[in-house]
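hey
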């Protein structure tokens, strides 16, 4: 038994945000049915690096699709056809949750919007994830993660300061807006399910905008602007409110330092052989260290440059000072703590034999995650789902396939 055993999700979403949310629900035990276009499927089936089989041959499965779609059953349905729309409506009647990320209002023309589906299934929790939301002057606009990073303010505080080498706004190195919205979607869906099951008996509609989610996720940085009226500075790896909180070049590479309080700073300075530095009134407390960052950092950098990363990291660990190397993924997945936590795993796959996966980080004490399957092949479970949930017999399935509905 898992946390969401007995719940069923109809995943009408594509690309990243919706599939990421649906995958998390699958990890937690929900039965997730992913509806895809016949012949082509989700766009991310054609994005990313291709997985290899046991003989080293490329398969059709891509890294992007494998990252967002484990634990699901894939059904191919042409929703542009009336018979396809009817199938999806029937599936929605057998589900607790619908997730979609079409442009605002797009599914209404197919009769697959919340108003249409909730009339058939009042207990349905329906989550729409769109670029800018279902209302407002931007509701009609399409959008992708770089726009949400740029228009949310995220890029304004990411990158080196203007005037320094490489200065200027920088995009975060992954689709952070999509993943963030996916997390918000899961939280909202679970809250709506609790309200349905404990209070009202009926589902509700969730309107989630990727740009809104990214603005909200900026959290304390956005609040710096709201309380001061001043744009937070762009400081590269440094922090505007804590110091030292940045990377330093050691003898053989960079080390990330995250000194969070005054006692850690005192321990940090003792390891560096600068025990008197915390007595300097410019560096005595975190607020004044942040204020005098340009005076403090060169003093620390000069000493840190004299020894290799491994030596400094070990010395700081022994002193209880938070530091860490800047790892590539080879180092990440070889790290003994990551290995111990099981953050890299393999799942059996129909075409590739097995595929590697980044595990879900949540560890339940009573209902551990049971990974049922890797990401499905396109339409792999069409016949199975139509027979199981809609009681369509072999002749009916064959007729739908003949008419290119599935």
């Amino acid at each position: 038994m898992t946390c969401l055993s007995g719940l069923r999700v109809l995943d009408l979403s594509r690309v990243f945000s919706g599939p990421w949310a649906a995958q998390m629900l699958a990890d937690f035990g929900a039965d997730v049915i992913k509806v895809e276009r016949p012949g082509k499927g989700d766009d991310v089936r054609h994005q990313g690096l291709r997985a290899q089989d046991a003989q080293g041959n490329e398969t059709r499965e891509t890294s992007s699709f494998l990252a967002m779609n484990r634990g699901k059953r894939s059904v191919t349905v042409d929703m542009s056809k009336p018979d396809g729309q009817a199938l999806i409506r029937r599936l929605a009647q057998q589900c607790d949750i619908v997730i979609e990320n079409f442009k605002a209002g797009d599914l209404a023309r197919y009769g697959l919007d919340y108003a249409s589906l909730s009339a058939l299934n009042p207990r349905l929790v329906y989550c729409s994830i769109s670029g800018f939301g279902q209302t407002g002057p931007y509701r009609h606009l399409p959008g992708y993660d770089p726009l949400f990073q740029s228009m949310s303010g995220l890029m304004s505080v990411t990158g080196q300061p203007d005037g320094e080498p490489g200065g200027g706004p920088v995009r975060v190195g992954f689709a952070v807006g999509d993943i963030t919205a996916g997390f918000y979607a899961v939280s909202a869906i679970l809250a709506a399910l609790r309200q349905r099951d404990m209070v009202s008996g009926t589902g509700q509609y969730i309107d989630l905008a990727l740009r809104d989610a990214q603005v909200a996720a900026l959290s304390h940085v956005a609040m710096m602007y709201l309380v001061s009226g001043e744009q937070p500075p762009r400081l590269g790896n440094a922090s505007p409110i804590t110091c030292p909180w940045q990377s330093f070049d050691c003898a053989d590479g960079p080390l990330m330092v995250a000194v969070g309080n005054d006692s850690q700073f005192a321990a940090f300075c003792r390891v560096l052989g600068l025990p008197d530095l915390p007595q300097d009134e410019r560096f005595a407390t975190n607020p004044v260290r942040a204020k005098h960052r340009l005076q403090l950092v060169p003093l620390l950098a000069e000493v840190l440059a004299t020894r290799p990363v491994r030596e400094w990291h070990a010395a700081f660990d022994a002193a209880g000072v938070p530091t860490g190397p800047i790892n590539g993924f080879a180092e990440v997945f070889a790290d003994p703590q990551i290995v111990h936590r099981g953050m890299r795993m393999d799942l059996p796959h129909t075409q590739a034999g097995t595929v590697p996966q980044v595990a879900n980080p949540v560890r339940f004490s009573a209902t551990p995650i049971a990974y049922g399957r890797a990401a499905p092949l396109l339409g792999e479970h069409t016949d199975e789902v139509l027979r199981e949930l809609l009681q369509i017999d072999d002749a009916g399935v064959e007729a739908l396939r003949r008419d290119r509905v599935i």
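Residues 245-333 form a domain with the formyl-coa transferase, domain 3 fold (CATH 3.30.1540.10). The first helix runs from residue 17 to 27.
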